[in-house]
Amino acid sequence: MTTPPFRFDALSSVHDRTAFRCGEEVLDRYLQTQATQDIRRRVANCFVAVEAVTGQVAAYYTLSAASVPLVDLRLEETRRLPRYPTLPTVRVGRLAVDQRFQKRGLGAALLADAARRTLQAPPAVFTLLVDAKNDGAVAFYERFGFRALYGHPRTLFLPLATAQRSFSKTPPTDSAMPGDGILGRSSSVRYFQRRGGR
Ligand SMILES: CC(C)(COP(=O)(O)OP(=O)(O)OC[C@H]1O[C@@H](n2cnc3c(N)ncnc32)[C@H](O)[C@@H]1OP(=O)(O)O)[C@@H](O)C(=O)NCCC(=O)NCCS
Fold first, then answer.
1. Nearest to 110 by CA among 36, 43, 13, 31
2. What SS3 class is residue 55?
Protein backbone atom coordinates (compact mmCIF):
# COMPACT_ATOMS: atom_id res chain seq x y z
CA MET A 1 0.00 0.00 0.00
CA THR A 2 1.40 3.43 -0.94
CA THR A 3 1.39 6.26 1.59
CA PRO A 4 -0.72 9.24 0.52
CA PRO A 5 1.46 12.34 0.16
CA PHE A 6 -0.50 14.57 2.56
CA ARG A 7 -2.08 14.22 5.97
CA PHE A 8 -4.86 16.52 7.21
CA ASP A 9 -4.57 17.58 10.87
CA ALA A 10 -6.17 20.10 13.19
CA LEU A 11 -3.50 22.79 13.65
CA SER A 12 -1.47 22.36 16.84
CA SER A 13 1.90 23.28 18.31
CA VAL A 14 3.58 20.33 16.56
CA HIS A 15 3.14 22.01 13.17
CA ASP A 16 6.00 24.21 11.97
CA ARG A 17 4.46 27.02 9.91
CA THR A 18 7.40 29.45 9.80
CA ALA A 19 8.29 28.59 6.18
CA PHE A 20 4.70 28.88 4.86
CA ARG A 21 4.42 31.26 1.85
CA CYS A 22 1.29 31.25 -0.32
CA GLY A 23 1.81 34.51 -2.22
CA GLU A 24 -0.63 36.50 -0.05
CA GLU A 25 1.32 37.83 2.93
CA VAL A 26 -1.77 38.43 5.01
CA LEU A 27 -2.66 34.73 4.76
CA ASP A 28 0.89 33.66 5.72
CA ARG A 29 0.85 36.00 8.70
CA TYR A 30 -2.53 34.73 9.84
CA LEU A 31 -1.26 31.14 9.99
CA GLN A 32 1.95 32.12 11.73
CA THR A 33 0.66 34.62 14.30
CA GLN A 34 -3.12 34.53 14.72
CA ALA A 35 -4.57 31.11 13.99
CA THR A 36 -3.66 29.63 17.38
CA GLN A 37 -5.28 32.54 19.24
CA ASP A 38 -8.44 32.21 17.15
CA ILE A 39 -8.63 28.50 18.01
CA ARG A 40 -8.12 29.22 21.72
CA ARG A 41 -10.85 31.89 21.67
CA ARG A 42 -13.16 29.56 19.75
CA VAL A 43 -13.72 31.97 16.85
CA ALA A 44 -12.14 29.69 14.20
CA ASN A 45 -10.74 26.20 13.84
CA CYS A 46 -7.76 25.69 11.59
CA PHE A 47 -6.82 22.57 9.63
CA VAL A 48 -3.54 21.95 7.86
CA ALA A 49 -2.38 19.65 5.06
CA VAL A 50 1.01 18.28 6.09
CA GLU A 51 3.42 16.76 3.60
CA ALA A 52 3.84 13.21 4.90
CA VAL A 53 7.52 12.87 3.97
CA THR A 54 8.82 16.19 5.35
CA GLY A 55 6.18 17.15 7.92
CA GLN A 56 5.94 20.61 6.33
CA VAL A 57 2.66 22.53 6.40
CA ALA A 58 1.66 22.63 2.74
CA ALA A 59 -1.78 24.24 3.02
CA TYR A 60 -4.41 25.35 5.52
CA TYR A 61 -7.97 26.52 5.92
CA THR A 62 -10.18 27.80 8.73
CA LEU A 63 -13.79 27.02 9.65
CA SER A 64 -16.20 29.13 11.72
CA ALA A 65 -19.94 29.02 12.34
CA ALA A 66 -21.90 31.74 10.51
CA SER A 67 -25.30 32.42 9.00
CA VAL A 68 -26.59 33.57 5.62
CA PRO A 69 -29.61 35.90 5.40
CA LEU A 70 -32.28 34.20 3.29
CA VAL A 71 -32.61 37.37 1.21
CA ASP A 72 -29.01 36.92 0.01
CA LEU A 73 -30.01 33.77 -1.90
CA ARG A 74 -31.81 33.81 -5.22
CA LEU A 75 -35.45 32.76 -5.37
CA GLU A 76 -34.71 29.48 -7.17
CA GLU A 77 -32.29 28.57 -4.37
CA THR A 78 -34.79 29.18 -1.55
CA ARG A 79 -38.02 27.89 -3.10
CA ARG A 80 -38.02 24.64 -1.09
CA LEU A 81 -36.65 26.11 2.13
CA PRO A 82 -38.51 27.19 5.27
CA ARG A 83 -38.87 30.97 5.56
CA TYR A 84 -36.34 31.33 8.37
CA PRO A 85 -34.62 34.74 8.29
CA THR A 86 -31.17 33.14 8.21
CA LEU A 87 -29.71 29.77 7.24
CA PRO A 88 -26.91 27.95 9.08
CA THR A 89 -23.57 27.98 7.33
CA VAL A 90 -19.90 27.30 7.93
CA ARG A 91 -17.48 29.94 6.72
CA VAL A 92 -14.17 28.88 5.18
CA GLY A 93 -12.61 32.11 6.40
CA ARG A 94 -9.12 31.57 5.05
CA LEU A 95 -7.73 29.02 2.62
CA ALA A 96 -4.21 28.93 1.19
CA VAL A 97 -1.69 26.58 -0.37
CA ASP A 98 2.07 27.13 -0.04
CA GLN A 99 3.55 28.17 -3.41
CA ARG A 100 5.77 25.06 -3.48
CA PHE A 101 2.65 22.89 -3.45
CA GLN A 102 0.23 24.86 -5.66
CA LYS A 103 -1.34 23.44 -8.85
CA ARG A 104 -1.26 19.85 -7.58
CA GLY A 105 -4.86 19.58 -6.44
CA LEU A 106 -4.31 20.57 -2.82
CA GLY A 107 -6.71 23.53 -3.02
CA ALA A 108 -9.39 21.08 -4.17
CA ALA A 109 -8.43 18.68 -1.37
CA LEU A 110 -8.81 21.46 1.23
CA LEU A 111 -12.35 22.18 0.04
CA ALA A 112 -13.18 18.47 0.10
CA ASP A 113 -11.83 18.15 3.65
CA ALA A 114 -13.82 21.23 4.76
CA ALA A 115 -17.03 19.84 3.24
CA ARG A 116 -16.57 16.40 4.82
CA ARG A 117 -15.82 17.78 8.27
CA THR A 118 -18.86 20.07 8.06
CA LEU A 119 -21.14 17.27 6.86
CA GLN A 120 -20.05 15.13 9.80
CA ALA A 121 -20.62 17.83 12.44
CA PRO A 122 -23.77 17.26 14.55
CA PRO A 123 -25.40 20.67 13.86
CA ALA A 124 -27.08 20.84 10.46
CA VAL A 125 -25.31 23.18 8.08
CA PHE A 126 -26.95 24.34 4.85
CA THR A 127 -23.91 25.66 2.97
CA LEU A 128 -20.21 26.30 2.99
CA LEU A 129 -19.47 30.01 2.60
CA VAL A 130 -16.24 31.57 1.31
CA ASP A 131 -14.96 35.12 0.90
CA ALA A 132 -12.84 35.33 -2.24
CA LYS A 133 -9.93 37.78 -2.02
CA ASN A 134 -9.90 38.57 -5.74
CA ASP A 135 -11.33 37.54 -9.12
CA GLY A 136 -8.85 34.66 -9.40
CA ALA A 137 -10.13 33.24 -6.12
CA VAL A 138 -13.74 33.64 -7.36
CA ALA A 139 -12.83 31.61 -10.46
CA PHE A 140 -11.15 28.96 -8.26
CA TYR A 141 -14.26 28.51 -6.09
CA GLU A 142 -16.65 28.56 -9.06
CA ARG A 143 -14.82 25.54 -10.50
CA PHE A 144 -16.20 23.53 -7.57
CA GLY A 145 -19.82 24.66 -7.85
CA PHE A 146 -19.72 27.66 -5.49
CA ARG A 147 -22.11 30.47 -6.51
CA ALA A 148 -22.10 34.13 -5.51
CA LEU A 149 -24.61 35.42 -2.98
CA TYR A 150 -27.10 37.90 -4.40
CA GLY A 151 -25.45 41.33 -4.42
CA HIS A 152 -22.15 39.99 -2.99
CA PRO A 153 -20.04 38.88 -5.95
CA ARG A 154 -17.05 37.85 -3.80
CA THR A 155 -18.99 35.91 -1.19
CA LEU A 156 -19.79 32.48 -2.54
CA PHE A 157 -21.68 29.49 -1.19
CA LEU A 158 -21.93 25.77 -1.91
CA PRO A 159 -25.09 23.94 -0.77
CA LEU A 160 -23.85 20.94 1.22
CA ALA A 161 -26.77 18.76 0.11
CA THR A 162 -25.27 18.86 -3.36
CA ALA A 163 -21.90 17.69 -2.07
CA GLN A 164 -23.51 15.10 0.22
CA ARG A 165 -25.49 13.46 -2.59
CA SER A 166 -22.33 13.11 -4.56
CA PHE A 167 -20.43 11.58 -1.62
CA SER A 168 -23.17 9.01 -0.99
CA LYS A 169 -22.96 7.80 -4.60
CA THR A 170 -19.24 7.09 -4.19
CA PRO A 171 -18.35 5.86 -0.70
CA PRO A 172 -14.90 6.91 0.55
CA THR A 173 -12.14 4.49 -0.31
CA ASP A 174 -10.01 5.46 2.67
CA SER A 175 -10.37 6.24 6.37
CA ALA A 176 -9.64 9.94 6.09
CA MET A 177 -12.59 11.11 8.17
CA PRO A 178 -13.82 11.55 10.81
CA GLY A 179 -10.97 12.90 12.83
CA ASP A 180 -7.61 13.75 11.43
CA GLY A 181 -5.59 11.62 9.14
CA ILE A 182 -4.58 10.90 5.61
CA LEU A 183 -6.99 12.19 2.99
CA GLY A 184 -5.21 10.81 -0.04
CA ARG A 185 -7.41 10.27 -3.10
CA SER A 186 -10.73 10.10 -1.29
CA SER A 187 -14.06 10.22 -3.09
CA SER A 188 -14.57 13.78 -1.92
CA VAL A 189 -11.41 14.92 -3.64
CA ARG A 190 -12.51 13.21 -6.82
CA TYR A 191 -15.89 14.92 -6.46
CA PHE A 192 -14.33 18.36 -6.36
CA GLN A 193 -12.06 17.51 -9.24
CA ARG A 194 -15.04 16.32 -11.30
CA ARG A 195 -16.89 19.58 -10.64
CA GLY A 196 -13.91 21.27 -12.25
CA GLY A 197 -14.54 19.31 -15.42
CA ARG A 198 -11.74 16.78 -15.16
C1 LIG B 1 -6.09 29.66 -4.94
C2 LIG B 1 -5.27 28.49 -4.36
C3 LIG B 1 -5.86 28.08 -3.02
C4 LIG B 1 -5.37 27.30 -5.34
O5 LIG B 1 -4.66 26.20 -4.78
P6 LIG B 1 -4.05 25.04 -5.71
O7 LIG B 1 -3.62 23.93 -4.82
O8 LIG B 1 -3.04 25.60 -6.63
O9 LIG B 1 -5.34 24.63 -6.55
P10 LIG B 1 -5.62 23.20 -7.23
O11 LIG B 1 -4.34 22.64 -7.78
O12 LIG B 1 -6.37 22.35 -6.28
O13 LIG B 1 -6.56 23.63 -8.43
C14 LIG B 1 -7.84 23.11 -8.59
C15 LIG B 1 -8.47 23.74 -9.82
O16 LIG B 1 -8.65 25.14 -9.61
C17 LIG B 1 -7.99 25.87 -10.66
N18 LIG B 1 -7.40 27.07 -10.09
C19 LIG B 1 -6.41 27.14 -9.18
N20 LIG B 1 -6.13 28.43 -8.90
C21 LIG B 1 -6.96 29.17 -9.67
C22 LIG B 1 -7.15 30.56 -9.83
N23 LIG B 1 -6.45 31.46 -9.15
N24 LIG B 1 -8.09 30.97 -10.74
C25 LIG B 1 -8.81 30.06 -11.43
N26 LIG B 1 -8.70 28.74 -11.30
C27 LIG B 1 -7.77 28.30 -10.43
C28 LIG B 1 -6.92 24.94 -11.18
O29 LIG B 1 -6.55 25.25 -12.50
C30 LIG B 1 -7.59 23.60 -11.06
O31 LIG B 1 -8.44 23.45 -12.18
P32 LIG B 1 -8.37 22.13 -13.07
O33 LIG B 1 -9.12 21.14 -12.23
O34 LIG B 1 -9.06 22.46 -14.32
O35 LIG B 1 -6.92 21.80 -13.23
C36 LIG B 1 -3.77 28.86 -4.23
O37 LIG B 1 -3.30 29.34 -5.46
C38 LIG B 1 -3.48 29.90 -3.15
O39 LIG B 1 -3.32 29.56 -1.99
N40 LIG B 1 -3.38 31.20 -3.54
C41 LIG B 1 -3.03 32.25 -2.61
C42 LIG B 1 -4.11 32.51 -1.57
C43 LIG B 1 -5.51 32.63 -2.15
O44 LIG B 1 -5.72 33.29 -3.17
N45 LIG B 1 -6.49 31.98 -1.50
C46 LIG B 1 -7.86 31.91 -2.00
C47 LIG B 1 -8.81 32.17 -0.90
S48 LIG B 1 -9.26 33.87 -0.80
1. 31
2. coil
Is residue 92 in contact with ligand 1, taking CB distance under 6 Å?
no
Average pLDDT estimate for 180-194: 44
**pLDDT reading at 81 higher than 80:** yes
CA distance linking residue 14 with residue 40, whole number of Å: 16
CB 47 within 8 A of CB 11: yes
**How far, in Å, CA of 188 to CA of 38, rounded?**
27
Half-sphere exposure of 84 (CA within 13 A, CB side): 9
Q: 153: Cβ below 6 Å to ligand 1?
A: no
Please indicate, yes or no, if residue 110 is contained in any of the structural domains.
Answer: yes
1 domain residue, yes or no: no
Packing angle between helix 106-120 and helix 160-169, nearest 10 degrees?
Answer: 100
Instruction: Report CA-CA distances (Å) from 65 to 57, 82, 188.
Output: 24, 20, 22
CATH code of 88's domain:
3.40.630.30
132 lines ligand 1 (CB under 6 A): yes
Query: Tens of pLDDT along 96-127?
Result: 999 999 999 999 999 999 999 999 999 999 99
- What range does the domain containing 30 cover? 6-195
Catalytic residues: 141
